[in-house]
Each structure stands twice: as structure tokens, then as C-alpha cells.
Amino acid sequence: MKKLFLGLLLLATLGISACVTAGGVQTSTEQELPVPDISNLKPKWIEGDCRSMAMTAESHSTCIAYLASQLPPFDPNKREYFGEDYNPGKFLECALKQSQGIDGACERYRLRRIDNPEYWPYPDVPKPKWPEAPKESVYKPGMNSKQYFEALCKAEAGEFIYKTVENVEGIYQVRPRSRLEYYDYPQQDRYVLEDPFSYTDVEASSKPEDYFIQPALGQYQFFERPTPDGQYQYFWRDDQNSKGGYQTAINGKPQTVPYVVSSKTSSSLSAYYGYVWRGVARLYDRDNKIAGGELAVIDLKTNEILAIRRGFARGGDVRNSPTGIYWHIAERCPTDSKSVAKFIYKVLKPHTAGKE
Description:
By secondary structure, the protein is α+β, with helices and mostly antiparallel strands. It folds into two domains: 2-109, no CATH class; 145-350, no CATH class. It is built from nine helices and 15 strands. The protein has helices spanning 2-14, 43-47, 57-69, 88-96, 145-156, 184-187, 201-204, 208-212, 340-347, and strands spanning 19-22, 25-28, 158-161, 165-168, 170-173, 222-226, 232-237, 243-250, 253-259, 261-266, 273-280, 290-299, 304-314, 331-333, 348-350. Strands 3, 5, 6, 7, 10, 11, 12, 13 and 14 form a nine-stranded mixed sheet that branches. Strands 1-2 form a two-stranded antiparallel sheet. It is globular and about 65 Å long.
């Protein structure tokens, strides 16, 4: 019965909707997969990515078909928003073969870029004006990936500090990074990460406040980030209410220190300064496994850019990656790209600098 159900489902879907490769460019028929009847499915099964052991084989297949039907057709005009192997039809075919859940090998067929919204605290203030891309490309016909990467690094990469500020107590994260992008499949994809250059787990984790406040990692007194409902999460160094032990490294040696970060929700912002990031695109960059990114330090009252760090990552050739890319260990310029805080401290100098 299950084989018959799967066969009919595949015939009904793969025949009318598929992403194909034509001349090396993925295209789409722009037809969506049909939406199955999910009246017998529990919402928690769908929310759980069809991984419940309580599902029958038929309900599991219906659940998978529903997930596939919610995937948009590939849009060649927005190539960077879809994974290199994005294909709803292939995702359906692959996932239907799994008895429970979705095998990791199927993930690459549904990878899409995750939206990372910007939350500007003062909507009436014009957004900062990012620098334009150079009119003349450094790419030359015949360049290989390594040569192109080195040319980009020489021509564009670096830290550009226009103004510094002393005795800064705290900062605001205008555009939080999604933790969901840190697992293997996005990190092995050519397109879906907007800014592989400076993406790291510590700054994009569920607790970036530790990165900027908690000794011996951080140097600020407070850190703020937005919430989707228009509020702000305010984190501060609260030495009077330390909790338990916090594992860290001091001078390269493992240490246990008190955890001193407290938090609350606020309707107003305390920080005068913040930072924001974006990916930058250059001619033939992704084709050569190269991706660029910029981070700007901002005066929030005026949205003046105080400093910019621009850099590039080269995915290289990784044998154990299906795409040959693994952004975690990519070659980078500047080479200290993973230290977001280090760059910000150069511009917004903490008033606790030199103190624990």
C-alpha cells in the first residue's frame, strides 16, 4: 500500500513541477507542487518536520508532501536566495524514501537563504549610505579562484576607520544573525549564506550578549538587540547577582568565572552606537566559491558610518563536502575576520578597556 501511495504521489508531483538544469543554469517551470489534504495530520507533526514516531507510513508521506508543497519554485532571477541544489521535486522524492523524518542528504534540495531583518531604532533617520561597489572589476578572464580571491583582497579588503569614540558603555545589534545558518548544510552551500566572511557561532549564537559582556570575552557594560515585536532585549553586566560558574579561557588557559549577565525587556534603547552587516556581491564571485561581506559601525542618532570592515571568504576545495565548500574553514582576508568584537572595540572603545 505504501509503495502504491508513494508511486501515485510522485507521478502527480514530479511530472508537473521540477527544477531542471539547462546550460549550467537552474531554471523552473514555475508550477508549484500540489498541496495534499492534511486534515488527518496533527499540527505538531508538521511543525516537527514530520519526525513523529506516532505517524503512520501514509501520514508521514502526506506530511512530507505538504512540506514540499510549501517550497516556492526556483526563481533564476533571485539565484542567491536558493541553495545550489535547490529543487522541491527532488526534495520530495528524496524525503519520501525516509521512513521517519527527513534524512540530512535531502536538506540540500530545500535550502533557502534565511531572512535576517534590520531593526533600525529611529525610522525617521535615513539609513546609512553604504559604499558603492567599484566600477571596474578586478576579475580578468582566465583567473582561477585563488587568483581572483587574492586580487579582491588586494583591491578591496580591509578596515576603514573614519572616526573613533571613547568610553562607550554598550552597543546595539541592528541586524541579528540567525543561528539556523550555522549548521553544516548552509555552511556547505555556495549561495544561501549572505555573508560567509564574518559569520561565526559566537556572535550569531543564541547568547551574543556573552560575547560582548561576559568576562573574559566581553568589554562592554551592556548589549542590546531587537525583538520582532518592536521591543529591545537589554543585557548588562550585573556583578551583584552573579550565577554559577562560566567556562571560559583566560590567557589560553581554561577557567571558571562567575556568570554576571542579567537581562530585561525594554521599550526604549540605551545605546548611542551600534553595528550592522551585509553581504557584498562581486562579478563571478560565487562561481569561484568566493563571498564578500561588510560590517559597519554606526552612530544610531544620525546613522553616520564610523567605520567599515570589508572582507572576502574563499570556500576552497573541501573533499568531504558535497559542494567542495565549507565556509567554517574558508580562507579569509582580513585573516582575523571572525573577531567581530575586536574590530568594534577599535572604533567604539569600551570604558572598561584594560580592566576585567
